[in-house]
């Protein structure tokens, strides 16, 4: 049995529990001892962060071979079009190589709390939203992908990691899930019979 904590990391919060520069950290939002984040979320990004004290569970969530899909709601500058979305679906070539194909679709303005500070409407008069699901974890990958297709990211919210979802958690809120390790399958092979015969013993 393992405990997994799902936290909605707010904007401008470090994905760690201490900071020498006095910035806001996870310790300001979740007071659970000896837990560690499974992966990270950039300081200027928001949304779902998974934490646990179980190192094996953290490894299973974060290891690239498991390819846990991560879904983001992305507010971009400009009115994103089908050409850009199709490019994201096919994969784009960044400085560190081509990305895997992603799931990308335009999104109506989501019902979420406004970010503080607000995005300046004078500097960014036209914005749009998309939902983007990737199976990689490169540094600032989503931001680089949207910039590559001509629509810089203004706001980035991670809403799902594999089967775990944000599910209405407000910024700074968290919940705990209890995970049970799967039981090993029962063997369908009959036990081998002993080859040794019993000898009768006279009383």
Task: Describe this protein's structure.
It comes from Vreelandella vilamensis. This is Pseudouridine synthase. Residues 3-148 form the Pseudouridine synthase RsuA/RluA-like domain. Residues 93-123, 177-203 are annotated as: Disordered. Pfam families: PseudoU_synth_2 (PF00849). By secondary structure, the protein is α+β, with helices and mostly antiparallel strands. Helix content is 12%, strand content 29%. The chain is built from three helices and eleven strands; from the N terminus they run E-E-E-H-E-H-E-E-E-E-H-E-E-E. It has helices spanning 55-62, 82-90, 141-148, and strands spanning 2-9, 36-37, 46-52, 70-77, 93-94, 97-98, 103-107, 127-134, 153-161, 164-165, 174-179. Strand 2 and strand 3 (46-52) form a beta hairpin. It is globular and about 45 Å long. The N and C termini lie far apart (54 Å). Residues 196-203 have low confidence and may be disordered.
Q: What's the total helix number?
A: 3
* Biggest sheet record: 9 strands, mixed
**Count of extended strands:** 11
- Which structural class is indicated by helix and strand composition? alpha+beta
Low-confidence stretches: 196-203
Features:
two-stranded antiparallel sheet, 3 helices, 11 strands, disordered C terminus, PsdUridine_s_RsuA/RluB/E/F_cat, RsuA_PseudoU_synthase, Pseudouridine synthase, isomerase, TruA/RsuA/RluB/E/F_N
SSE topology sketch:
Elements: E1 2-9, E2 36-37, E3 46-52, H1 55-62, E4 70-77, H2 82-90, E5 93-94, E6 97-98, E7 103-107, E8 127-134, H3 141-148, E9 153-161, E10 164-165, E11 174-179
Parallel strand pairs: 3-9
Antiparallel strand pairs: 1-3, 1-11, 2-3, 4-8, 4-9, 5-6, 7-8, 9-10
